[in-house]
Amino acid sequence: MSLNLSIDRLTTIIRAFAQEMTILISMYGGYVLKYIGDAVLAFFVVDTNDTNDFYDNENKAKYSSNNNNDNFDSLSYSNVISCAYTMIKVVQEGINPILNQNDYPDLKVRIGINFGEIAVVKYGVDMDEYNNMILKRPHLDLIGYTISIAVKMTSLAKPDHIVIGEELFSLLEGKLKDTFKQLSITPDLWNYSTETTGKIYSVYENIR
Fold first, then answer.
1. CA distance 186 to 159
2. Distance of alpha carbon 118 from alpha carbon 107, whole angstroms
C-alpha cells in the first residue's frame, strides 16, 4: 500500500487498523505491547499453575463438573485463536467496506501466534508532568525466543490467515485443532529450531 497510496491515506488506514485491533485484543483479555509500523504486537497471559484464577464464578461452575483444570486450560489457549479469527472478520466485514466507500483498497492481515515463556525487561522510566505533578511510567519490553518466533512466523501466513507455533498447536483440542494443518516449509525460508530438541520448529496454518 505504501507504494500506491499517499502518506496521509496510508496513515489513516494504519491508525484505524491499530485502533480496532487494540479494542479487540482488550475485549479478549489481551494486552498491546507496542505498535511496529503497520503491525500490532500483543500478548495474552496464561497462568499454567492455576488457570482457575482467571475465570469468574459462572465459568468455574460451568466447567467444575470435570474436577480438573483441562477445560480451563483449553479455554485459555483457544481464546487467543478466537481473537485472531475475530480480527480477520472485523477487517473483512467492518473496516474494508468503509475503506471501499472512500476509495481505499482492501486491507489484508497476517497473524502469527506462539506460546511460551517470555521475559519482562525494564529499560528505564518515562516521566510526564501533569497539573504540576510528575508521573513516572516504567518503560517495559518483552523479549525471548517465543516472541521472536511469533514475529517471524507472521510472514509465513497468507493474507487473512493465521499461523501458530507447535507449542500452541499441541495445547489445542478437538475441532479447533482440526482447523489447522502443518505447513511444509523449506529450510531456506524457515530454520528456527525447538529449544529442547534442536529440531525444526513446526508451524501450522488455519484451513478455514
1. 20
2. 30
Residues of the chain with pLDDT under 70: 48-75
Question: Which residue bears the cell 512466523?
Answer: 153
Question: Do β-strands 133-143 and 119-130 pair in parallel, antiparallel, or remain unpaired?
Answer: antiparallel
User: What are the angstrom distances between the C-alpha of 168 and each of 61, 115, 156, 172?
Assistant: 26, 5, 16, 7
- State the burial class of residue 111 (Cβ atoms within 10 Å of its Cβ: 0-12, 13-18, 19+): buried
CA quadruple 41, 48, 181, 96: dihedral, nearest 10: -30
Please report the pLDDT score of residue 56 as a whole number: 45
Residues 6+ apart with CB under 8 A from 122: 138, 139, 140
| Angle formed at CA 21 by CA 115 and CA 81, multiple of 5 degrees | 35
Q: Which of 147, 148, 127, 145 has its CA nearest to residue 137?
A: 127
Q: 92: closest CA among 73, 81, 107?
A: 107
Question: Which phi and psi angles does 105 have, rounded to 5°?
Answer: -75, 165
User: HEC string of 137-172?
Assistant: EEEEEEECHHHHHHHHHHHHCCCCEEEEEHHHHCCC
Query: How far are the Cα atoms of 55, 82, 102, 165, 200 from residue 88, in angstroms, in the given order?
Result: 26, 10, 20, 19, 28
Amino acid at position 144, single letter: G
> Residue 27: which of 70, 75, 87 has the closest Cα?
87
